[in-house]
Amino acid sequence: MLFKRGLKRHLFSGIFTVLVISMLILSGPAGAVNAVLTTSNVNIENDILVPFQLDVEIDDPTNFYPLSNTVLTFNSGSNSYSCTIDSSNVVSGCDFLSVVSSSISGFQDLGFGYGYGYGYGYGYGTGGIGSGGISYYMIVNVASLPEEFIGTTVDVDVVVNGASSSETINDAGSFEVSGVTDSLLVANLKAGLLFSVIGGSNANENNINGNLNLISINADGIMITWSSSDAATINPFNGIVKRPGSDSTNKAVTWNCF
């Protein structure tokens, strides 16, 4: 009976050890990769350079480190721009994003031999390099941002590509672009200078017989100066129209704003 109990006890221990070793072999060391993008809102009237940051944490860098490249895709409506950061931190594909610097921590050479023993000399060993992190410090050049971004929320999709083509990680962020550019102000000014606004009581720009409403400032605060090809007929300062006499023919007058 004592021999049988001892045999059962050793047999159970052996089975338990095999189970533990199998679990360790199947699961392997825990690995995780995480990316976090930090963005800032942009005001194109006040900002010049706006900081962005991307932090990548790699617990098991076996097939991931060193990184191959990182792609940031900026989306606003139907407009999309992709910026690729290569292994030397050079950005291609867009002209508004650049990497100022990057920092690397960890990724120490582990060597071989760490593992877990369970009394029978079995264990799970590994080598290579340990966990680490990479931080990219970037700036957005506001003057180079696409005008389509203005007045919108821009979504940013991040894809970090590891050393192995099958190893990738994704993250996303967004930022708002507010303010207006000079070119947009001019475009708004042109769009607002309709004859229905400046024509006064006149119904047709080809048949002027009343004074014009030559506005000197628009809703955006843009000053407007008018010129006339015949200042005696249409005064460019106040829009007063002096009609030709009954014995005169019609006059063609061109007026411009700048």
Q: Your description of this structure?
A:
The chain has 258 residues and is of the alpha+beta class. It has two domains: 29-178, Immunoglobulin-like (Sandwich); 181-258, no CATH class. The chain contains three helices and twelve strands. The protein has helices at 2-27, 182-192, 195-198; strands at 33-38, 42-43, 49-58, 69-76, 79-85, 91-92, 97-106, 132-141, 153-161, 168-178, 226-228, 255-257. Strands 2-10-9-4-5-6 form a six-stranded mixed sheet, with no helix packed on it. A four-stranded antiparallel sheet has the order 1-3-8-7, with no helix packed on it. It starts with a helix and ends with a strand. Residues 1-7, 15-30 and 113-125 have low confidence and may be disordered.
Short description:
This protein is of the alpha+beta class and 258 residues long. It is 16% helix and 31% strand.
Any chance you could write out the topology, listing elements then pairs?
Elements: H1 2-27, E1 33-38, E2 42-43, E3 49-58, E4 69-76, E5 79-85, E6 91-92, E7 97-106, E8 132-141, E9 153-161, E10 168-178, H2 182-192, H3 195-198, E11 226-228, E12 255-257
Parallel strand pairs: 2-10
Antiparallel strand pairs: 1-3, 3-8, 4-5, 4-9, 5-6, 7-8, 9-10, 11-12
Shape designation: rod-shaped
CATH superfamily name of the largest domain? Immunoglobulins
Radius of gyration: 36 Å
CATH topology name of the largest domain, in short, is Immunoglobulin-like
Strand coverage percent? 25-35%
Number of domains: 2
Strand order of the largest sheet: 2-10-9-4-5-6
Mean model confidence by pLDDT: 81
CATH architecture of the largest domain: Sandwich
